[in-house]
Specification:
mainly alpha, 10% strand, 51% helix, single chain, two-stranded antiparallel ribbon
């Protein structure tokens, strides 16, 4: 019995040394000697020599001078890699895609071919008519109660605003409790739909969004203000606008502009995606640099082509670019955005 135990112990010790010590050390040595850049996370530095990101992990870019990555179900958090796992039939996926499309989709043909639909979404919203009936925001909250509730929960500023509204409208809250006896003490989230119904009646063609102003002493003060234009209008109400304009032909959008990757951290986008963003990026750089837009567009198109690649040296898949790599190339070529 002692021989069996001793042999088993030696075998365990041997396996631990090989698998937990020798093997990792060999891989570490190979990585640091032959692939030090990749082994250390593919970290790249900016012009000041400080790390700005990894070529392996997507990160958001919000300035119009930069190309933007595909959406991320992980909010670009490298410690929370995940996909949305939403089926094509899932209502939440339709809503997320519609919100992405609103500010970027363009007309396919006609007198406005190639122009963004976003300004027309704003004009339609301001008329406050949907499917021939008034009070568009009220209809939105009734059609999409979960998204009305999500709006209340999105920001503590929203929650506080609805709570304050509830304190000033006890009659509406009392009627809500009467209609919903199972919710005797409704929270701001519970009151989302009736809040938007009341808001829509009093503020036709308006919505709410946080705006930052400079207050006394130069301090920034953020508060909800009435809006009728902007990205919130374009994104939140695009789906309803589309239903009201079902016969209007729109350009196709590259799939990776509106869908997340399996990891939520894909650092690449297709060249087709980048080309779709090219007009926005080049026009903004041209305005910053006070240069001819056509010349800047050609230069940036060359940057895209130079940095594009296809898997297996072009044997499989379509051309892609690394978003961080291309944006750094633009930063190197044109300097910091204004």
């Amino acid at each position: 019995m002692s021989k069996i135990i001793s042999k088993s112990f030696l075998l365990l010790l041997f396996a631990v040394v090989i698998c937990c010590v020798a093997y990792p050390l060999v891989l570490l040595a190979i990585g640091q000697v032959f692939f030090p850049f990749q082994a250390n996370g593919s970290i790249v530095n900016g012009s000041d020599g400080k790390p700005v990101g990894s070529l392996l992990i997507a990160q958001p870019f919000t300035k119009d001078e930069y190309f933007q990555p595909r959406p991320s179900a992980a909010s670009y958090d490298g410690t929370a890699s995940s996909s949305s796992a939403l089926a094509v039939s899932n209502y939440a996926l339709r809503n997320r895609v519609a919100r992405t499309l609103g500010p970027i989709v363009k007309y396919a043909n006609g007198p406005k071919a190639g122009q963004l639909v976003a300004p027309d979404i704003e004009l339609w919203f301001q008329k406050d008519i949907y499917q021939g009936a008034p009070h568009l925001v009220a209809q939105w909250s009734s059609m999409h109660p979960s998204y009305a509730q999500a709006w209340v929960n999105t920001d503590s500023l929203h929650t506080a605003f609805v709570a304050d509204w509830a304190s000033k409208h006890p009659d509406i809250v009392a009627q809500f409790v009467k209609d919903n006896p199972g919710i005797p003490q409704p929270s701001p989230t519970d009151l989302a739909v009736v809040f938007f119904q009341n808001f829509s009646n009093n503020n036709p063609g308006k919505f709410l969004a946080p705006m930052t102003d400079t207050g006394a002493g130069g301090h920034a003060i953020t508060a909800l203000q009435l809006i009728s234009t902007g990205s919130d209008i374009q994104s939140i109400f695009f789906d309803m606008w589309r239903l009201d304009h079902a016969d209007v032909p729109l350009q196709d959008i590259p799939g990776d502009m509106v869908t997340t990757s399996g990891s939520g951290l894909d650092p690449h986008i297709t060249l087709q995606n980048a080309t779709y963003q090219l007009e926005r990026v080049s026009s903004k750089w041209a305005a910053d640099l006070k240069r001819n837009p056509a010349e800047v567009r050609t230069e940036i198109a060359n940057v895209l082509e130079k940095n594009s690649f296809a898997p297996l040296n072009g044997l499989a898949g379509e051309k892609m670019i690394n978003v961080l790599q291309v944006n750094l190339a633009l930063r190197s070529q044109y300097g910091a955005p204004q």
